[in-house]
RNA sequence: UCCCGAGUAGCUCAGGUGGUAGAGCAGGUGACUGUUAAUCACCGGGUCGGGGGUUCGAGUCCCUCCUCGGGAGCCA
């Protein structure tokens, strides 16, 4: 007679019969003649019960060898029992130790400091909270793919190794054969624009790198970004796409990751508010609002972190701030015909202090204006020849945006720091593990 | 780079006005037939981040360096 092997999530289907489960020990409790093993297999948590009088002595004695994180295989009768966490329990008839674990397993079921946990990130991932975050991240990534697939967007993967092109913030560099210095990509956008001229509606999804010495809860040196680029979309079309997209991601997690959000103790009522449309606040109106609220900001300044917070507190869902002064934004953004001091762009600010999750714009499609902007910024013209070509050969109105994956996941999960949303986050002072 | 804060047992922390260190958890031993981060008893465990100074005496006061956390700037 063979006993079926089950994952914990499916165990209830074996109620009333025997099954084998493999996993890792998370908690041990003993009452002398009854012992409890709580184990994890990646799909759930299971309490198994070992009764001294019900098993041979050699099986009973194995309990004493168990430690936290020992990998084991147990076999026994599956039964529904309200006293067991999760409602399912296994009465052990056989217990095998697959891999022992020394008693110095560092992560205990208690509070730890951040630095300690980050040093043990490879083990920290095993804790329920970290599992939940990674599952939500996975759900968001899948939802991203589904959203764009359903709308006929083509995913285009852009290079990570690039020549100097993109934005102005810090670059990681490396020697690249005889071609001089290569830089790790800060954005795939410019390549995305080229692809949009070929495919119409595209998005990129991949890692980007910023060598900024940022030490805040919102920054990583390596993070993932989703960058759609759409031919014949203007700035308003762009914002409609953004609010649909963000709302879709949030809705998907509410629908399919209830358990994980509960594990994270996320107040989901605040996420339920996230439905289109989002408020649209013109930069100039934002400045007026901020001045009324006591900010020192003057027209022309970029919004500081405090300014963003003041704006966000006015709304219970994400808000767009649009059409910033030219000087505050990147060279490729299209001049606003209604106010040439400004460009057609938007930042999408998430509520609850999570800040900017999207930066988007309509792109400058006029060859001469773009060329002038490149010169104004003192950018190396020869590096942008191909980018200018997109305006020479059938220029087209187009818009796009970049959504930061980790910031979005942090917001949906309600994690205080973005670093928890990456399995192995890279910060300016952390390259290991 | 700048501004705050922190560094004491494996982990989380407490240590008025200076007198060479404590708790909880973890670990070890034992008890307990339904535990839920089990409980109870006993036991082991420390170059107080490094260096220098003041002092009879420094975890404690001063200087300096290092590391970490948070924030600013930059941005997603």
Structure commentary:
The chain is of the alpha+beta class and 433 residues long. Helices cover 29% and strands 25% of the residues. It is built from 13 helices and 16 strands. The strands form three sheets. The chain has an eight-stranded mixed β-sheet. Strand 2 and strand 3 form a beta hairpin. The two termini are 45 Å apart. The structure holds one RNA strand of 76 nucleotides.
First-residue to last-residue Cα separation: 45 Å
Rg measurement, Å: 27 Å
Decide which structural class fits the backbone. alpha+beta
User: Can you count the beta strands?
Assistant: 16
Overall shape: elongated
Number of helices: 13
Strand order of the largest sheet: 6-10-11-16-15-14-13-12
Range of strand content: 15-25%
- State mean pLDDT (0 to 100 scale): 91
Biggest sheet character: 8 strands, mixed
What's the helix-strand series?
Answer: EEEHEEHHHEEEEHEEHHHEHHEEEHHEH
Low-confidence stretches: none
Helix share of residues? Answer: 25-40%
Helix-strand blueprint:
Layout: E1 18-30, E2 34-40, E3 45-51, H1 57-62, E4 71-80, E5 88-99, H2 114-119, H3 121-124, H4 128-150, E6 154-155, E7 161-162, E8 173-175, E9 181-184, H5 189-199, E10 201-209, E11 222-231, H6 235-256, H7 258-263, H8 269-272, E12 279-282, H9 283-292, H10 305-312, E13 319-322, E14 345-350, E15 355-362, H11 367-376, H12 385-392, E16 398-404, H13 405-413
Parallel strand pairs: 3-5, 6-10, 12-13
Antiparallel strand pairs: 1-2, 1-4, 2-3, 4-5, 7-9, 8-9, 10-11, 11-16, 13-14, 14-15, 15-16
Helix pairs in contact: 4-6, 4-13
This protein binds one RNA strand of 76 nucleotides through strand 1, strand 2, strand 3, helix 2 and strand 11.
């Amino acid at each position: 007679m063979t006993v079926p092997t089950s994952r914990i999530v499916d165990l209830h289907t074996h109620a009333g019969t025997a099954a084998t489960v493999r996993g890792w020990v998370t908690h041990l409790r003993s009452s002398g003649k009854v012992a409890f093993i709580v184990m994890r297999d990646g799909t759930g948590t299971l309490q198994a019960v070992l009764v001294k009088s019900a098993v041979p002595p050699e099986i009973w004695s194995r309990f004493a060898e168990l430690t936290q994180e020992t990998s084991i295989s147990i076999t026994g009768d599956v039964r529904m029992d309200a006293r067991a966490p999760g409602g399912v329990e296994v009465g052990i008839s056989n217990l095998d130790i697959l891999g022992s674990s020394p008693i110095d397993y560092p992560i205990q079921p208690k509070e730890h400091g951040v630095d300690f946990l980050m040093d043990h990130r490879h083990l920290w991932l095993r804790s329920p909270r970290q599992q939940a975050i990674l599952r939500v991240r996975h759900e968001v990534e899948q939802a991203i793919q589904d959203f764009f697939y359903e709308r006929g967007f083509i995913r285009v993967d852009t290079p990570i190794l690039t020549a100097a092109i993109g934005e102005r913030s810090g670059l990681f560099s490396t020697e690249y054969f005889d071609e001089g210095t290569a830089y790790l990509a800060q954005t795939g956008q410019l390549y995305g624009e080229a692809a949009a001229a070929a495919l119409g509606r595209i998005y990129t999804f991949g890692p980007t790198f910023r060598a900024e010495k940022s030490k805040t809860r919102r920054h990583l040196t390596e993070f993932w970004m989703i960058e759609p680029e759409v031919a014949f979309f203007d700035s308003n079309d762009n914002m409609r796409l953004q609010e649909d997209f963000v709302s879709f991601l949030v809705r998907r997690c509410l629908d399919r990751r209830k358990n994980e959000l509960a594990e994270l103790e996320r107040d989901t009522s605040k996420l339920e508010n996230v439905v289109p449309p989002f408020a649209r606040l013109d930069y100039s109106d934002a400045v007026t609002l901020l001045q009324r609220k006591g900010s020192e900001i003057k027209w022309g300044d970029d919004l500081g972190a405090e300014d963003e917070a003041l704006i966000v507190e006015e709304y219970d869902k994400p808000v767009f701030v649009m059409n910033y002064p030219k000087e505050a934004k990147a060279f490729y953004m299209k001049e606003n015909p209604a106010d040439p001091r400004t460009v057609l762009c938007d930042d999408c600010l998430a509520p609850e202090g999570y800040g900017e999750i999207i930066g988007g714009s309509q792109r400058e499609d006029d060859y001469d204006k773009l060329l002038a902007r490149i010169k104004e910024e003192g950018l190396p013209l020869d590096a942008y020849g191909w980018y200018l070509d997109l305006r020479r050969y059938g220029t087209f109105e187009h818009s796009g945006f970049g959504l930061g994956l980790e910031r979005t996941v942090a917001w949906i999960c309600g994690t205080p720091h973005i670093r928890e949303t990456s399995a192995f986050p890279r910060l300016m002072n952390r390259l290991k593990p």
